[in-house]
Structure to design on (1013 residues):
């Protein structure tokens, strides 16, 4: 093991992050060097290229033996690669989407692309960090980028409101996390996630460990917008530009779920009797609160915000699974959720534009008649979100609930599936609105144009959602391999 | 042709999907999507006819089986096959597809591409339900069958401007989607305990008392409710009248009945024979009351779609009655009646659709004395009506007779009597409907009507269906032989008493005798 570790230069362990950082910096410099009147579109393509390169670099990490670098602060393994690829994929789709939908006269457009790429650096680092201070730094890198992006529509009232709300609440949450890190260090004398497990039994004060763990959970559950830490989500999603929501409703969540898995399974496996009921409660609460609140929404983005809260709940149900199966199911669900959610926001972006001409569910009435392709895609992603078989949404939910029932919690799938029945009601409101004939007196909206980049983004998301539903074996295999990372620490659970 | 046997079911499942993809790729020009859909559905129908041609009704178990691992873990297989139970239902589904296309030929004028593509996807989903032998695959098709149906009702319903079609679609979806949540939990629970989704494996595991009685009760209940909604059984039928009034004809004719009834026999009775028997008294009561309730309500409806809806509840309750009587003749009758209901219901939908297309109203009071102007329509309506009422020589008679006689001797004389009253009431509502529409004084709308009778396309469909009704009525044994071999296994043959079996076979003989007498 040691020889293998030494044979891989440290830099390769953070190669994707390095590529992303260089890409971001390059975009910033070019943005400054270019004439203000010149189109910044090419910078978006630079970003897309850099993210693709990072994605390949992550895949390349699979061929190295799993191990840590930089004094044990980052670790690459099948788990980190799985999430790296996922995050890079999402950011790539979001960039392609922004290329076509961002208005050409938008100021600071170069900055926008750079921020997306910098956000990706933080998120990727978050999935491979195994030292709590690096975790904190990674979280901040990703959060600050998304704070700024959330408020990008400066000329609207909602934009800055979203950014301020997200920033204030987000800062509190990271504050909690930082407190947790400090207390963990106080209790065990280490901030290495992998060492915590061994040191907890000899911790100076067991109650301090529990408090620290609770504070960490607050910070992470805020980031995944699980109830009861979800209140920021609808306002922020409503105010932020749609392509940004496509990114921030998926990639930072995926990274935060990766962190959650790393901390509960890697750092605190023996506390499972404590965190499992906690996560169950959060899961049930998230599903129920998310779905009930979504039922009452008229604004599409608010409705999808609540739906994403509910999906966090379905995902958390997977943690009830025994052994590594729960991790595999959670990882797979993250991928499926990301594919369909980024997809539906992509369609909404293309259909209603950057300035959101169609904010309400009723505004989508007759979309399938105006633009059959977009209408069809929105139906497809909604069907996946409802959880109809042969889509990624169904298979993810199915895996999550299978592991939960195998773990002995049959009531959890029951609550979850009844909840998805409830959820069908509000998704169907949009389905019906899209499929309905347009109202006779409604003004004829122009047919949305789909550019090459946006078309590619839609195609990626659609194919991913379909593949995850029909031929999930390969991704499932990767998810299982990534779960094996925690096999040793899980075996410590009695 | 033996080489075909291994892949024929996959071919049947894939053909409509390919057709749907072709339709989406081709331009929306005139009747092109409809023509492609017709060719596809005829081809699929031909493929389904391969099944009875090569079916060995003497052999036990499933035939035309194809199996391979779809996903290794969780252990999901692509496993398809048919037995006597599903054989004719597959053929029926294949048969109704071209009829559905022809029924939509003129009534669907806009966005025909989407319509026919979804229509064909719906076809695959329904066929998939009948042939899946892996519970997960089955559940996949079961859920998939909801989606095109709901979208088609929302997009192509009759009252799009008043929003009632989208509401009917929503109601249909929620009604059927929510009960399938407990069904999926039950399937997952079985998988968690046995590690298999395979129908036969699960049947053995449940049969060998691997589970506690309480658990089995809950599982059986979850299965029962999910299927009963789809049939629908009395009390869970709230979605049906709305869907019948709103859905396009081609969808309404396949929405009720066969999927739910097949699932009840295969998966409720087949997997949980003991629990199904415990539920039987309730189901029989619901069915008998459903027959009376449906027929009575059909009598007083002012809208002909609603007459048909309540009439359908009554005829489907016959099937339920047959299933839960747990006699072989009852099962035979139930499956046969399911097929009959599919054929007769399709014909009635085409007939009423023809009326609706011509007059644009479904209020019965607007009609009257139409027989003079459209004799062919009137004749065909009467023929179909008589088949539904159960006139000997028609298919409705055989099914009803098998169900009623087996209920009378094998189950309960009281419920059988109640159901028989339902038969009389069904004659009453149908004949009064015929009377109000086709005879009596001519109404304003009819006087104003230029007098175009059924076109060639409509006559072709309807005579074809009428021939099938007559054909099944005259020689039901073609179907019954296959059905019987299927229900014996699905119904847990060993649990049927010898007495019942001999009773059952004698009923078949009696039925044949009666039919001979009828000639």
């Amino acid at each position: 093991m040691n020889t293998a570790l030494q044979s891989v230069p440290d830099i390769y362990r953070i190669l994707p992050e390095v590529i992303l950082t260089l890409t971001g910096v390059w975009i910033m410099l070019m943005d400054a060097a270019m004439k203000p009147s010149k189109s910044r579109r090419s910078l978006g393509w630079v970003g897309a290229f850099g993210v693709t390169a990072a994605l390949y670099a992550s895949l390349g990490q699979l061929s190295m033996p799993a191990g840590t670098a930089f004094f044990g602060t980052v670790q690459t393994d099948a788990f980190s690669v799985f999430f790296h690829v996922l995050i890079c994929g999402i950011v790539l789709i979001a960039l392609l989407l922004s290329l076509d939908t961002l208005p050409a006269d938008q100021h600071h457009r170069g900055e926008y692309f750079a921020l997306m790429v910098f956000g990706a650096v933080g998120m990727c680092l978050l999935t491979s960090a195994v030292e709590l201070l690096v975790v904190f730094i990674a979280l901040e890198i990703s959060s600050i980028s998304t704070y700024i992006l959330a408020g990008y529509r400066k000329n609207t009232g909602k934009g800055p409101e979203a950014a301020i709300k997200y920033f204030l609440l987000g800062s509190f949450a990271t504050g909690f996390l930082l407190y947790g890190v400090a207390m963990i260090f106080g209790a065990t004398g280490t901030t290495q996630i992998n060492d915590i497990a061994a040191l907890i039994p000899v911790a100076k004060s067991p109650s301090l460990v529990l408090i620290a763990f609770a504070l960490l959970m607050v910070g992470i559950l805020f980031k995944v917008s699980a109830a009861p830490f979800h209140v920021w989500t609808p306002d922020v999603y409503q105010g932020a530009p749609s392509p940004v929501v496509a990114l921030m409703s998926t990639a930072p969540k995926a990274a935060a779920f990766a962190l959650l898995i790393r901390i509960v399974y890697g750092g605190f496996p023996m506390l499972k009797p404590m965190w499992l009921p906690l996560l169950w409660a959060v899961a049930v609460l998230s599903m129920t609160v998310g779905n009930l609140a979504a039922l009452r929404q008229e604004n599409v983005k608010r409705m999808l915000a609540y739906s994403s809260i509910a999906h966090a709940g379905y995902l958390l149900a997977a943690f009830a699974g025994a052994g590594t199966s729960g991790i595999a199911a959670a990882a797979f669900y993250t991928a499926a959720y990301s594919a369909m959610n980024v997809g539906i926001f992509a369609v909404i972006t293309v259909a209603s534009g950057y300035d959101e001409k169609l904010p309400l569910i009723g505004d989508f009435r007759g979309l399938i008649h105006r633009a059959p392709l977009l209408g069809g895609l929105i139906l497809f992603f909604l069907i996946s979100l409802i959880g109809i078989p042969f889509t990624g949404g169904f298979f993810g939910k199915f895996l999550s609930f299978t592991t939960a029932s195998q773990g002995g919690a049959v009531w959890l799938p029951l609550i979850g599936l009844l909840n998805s029945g409830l959820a069908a009601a509000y998704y169907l409101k949009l389905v019906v609105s899209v499929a309905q004939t347009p109202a006779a007196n409604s003004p004829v909206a122009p047919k949305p144009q789909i550019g090459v980049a946006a078309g590619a983004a839609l195609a990626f998301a659609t194919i991913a959602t379909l593949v995850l539903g029909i031929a999930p074996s390969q991704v499932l295999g990767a998810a299982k391999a990534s779960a094996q990372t925690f096999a040793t620490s899980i075996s410590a659970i009695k | 042709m033996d080489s075909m046997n291994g892949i024929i079911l996959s071919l049947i499942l894939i053909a409509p999907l390919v057709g749907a993809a072709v339709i989406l790729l081709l331009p929306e020009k005139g009747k092109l999507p409809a023509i492609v859909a017709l060719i596809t559905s005829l081809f699929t129908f031909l493929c389904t006819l391969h099944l009875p041609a090569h079916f060995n009704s003497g052999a036990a178990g499933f035939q035309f089986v194809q199996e391979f691992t779809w996903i290794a873990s969780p252990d999901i297989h692509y496993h398809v096959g048919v037995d006597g139970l599903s054989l004719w239902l597959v053929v029926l589904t294949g048969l109704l597809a071209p009829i559905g296309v022809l029924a939509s030929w003129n009534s669907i004028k806009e966005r025909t591409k989407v319509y026919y593509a979804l229509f064909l996807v719906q076809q695959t989903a329904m066929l998939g339900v009948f042939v899946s032998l892996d519970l997960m695959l089955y559940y996949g098709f079961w859920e998939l069958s909801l989606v095109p149906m709901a979208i088609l009702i929302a997009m192509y319903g009759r009252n799009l401007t008043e929003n009632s079609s989208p509401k009917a679609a929503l109601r249909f979806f929620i009604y059927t989607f929510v009960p399938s949540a407990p069904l999926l939990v039950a399937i997952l629970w079985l998988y968690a305990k046995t590690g298999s989704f395979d129908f036969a494996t699960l049947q053995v595991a449940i049969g060998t008392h691997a589970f506690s009685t309480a658990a089995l009760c809950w599982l059986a209940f979850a299965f029962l409710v999910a299927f009963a909604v789809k049939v629908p059984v009395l009390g869970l039928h709230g979605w049906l009248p709305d869907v019948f009034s709103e859905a396009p004809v081609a969808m309404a004719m396949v929405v009720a009945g066969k999927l739910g009834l097949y699932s009840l026999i295969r998966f409720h009775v087949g997997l949980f024979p003991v629990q199904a028997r415990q539920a039987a008294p309730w189901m029989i009561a619901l069915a008998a009351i459903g027959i009376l309730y449906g027929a009575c309500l059909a009598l007083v409806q002012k809208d002909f779609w609603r007459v048909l809806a309540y009439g359908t509840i009554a005829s489907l309750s016959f099937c339920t009655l047959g299933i839960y009587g747990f006699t072989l003749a009852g099962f035979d009758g139930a499956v046969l009646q399911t097929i009959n209901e599919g054929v007769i219901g399709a014909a009635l939908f085409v007939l009423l659709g023809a009326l609706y297309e011509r007059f644009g109203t479904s209020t019965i009071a607007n009609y009257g004395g139409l027989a003079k102007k459209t004799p062919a329509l009137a004749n065909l309506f009467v023929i179909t009506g008589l088949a539904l009422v159960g006139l000997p020589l028609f298919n409705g008679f055989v099914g009803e007779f098998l169900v009623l006689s087996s209920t009378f001797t094998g189950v309960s004389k009281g419920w059988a009597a109640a159901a028989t009253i339902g038969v009389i009431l069904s004659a009453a509502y149908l004949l009064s409907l015929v009377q109000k529409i086709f005879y009596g004084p001519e109404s304003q709308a009819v006087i104003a009507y230029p007098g175009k009778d059924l076109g060639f396309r409509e006559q072709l469909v309807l005579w074809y269906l009428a021939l099938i009704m007559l054909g099944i009525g005259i020689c039901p044994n073609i179907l019954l032989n296959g059905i019987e071999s299927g229900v014996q296994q699905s119904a847990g043959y060993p649990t049927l008493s010898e007495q019942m079996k001999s009773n059952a076979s004698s009923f078949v003989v009696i039925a044949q005798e009666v039919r001979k007498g009828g000639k």
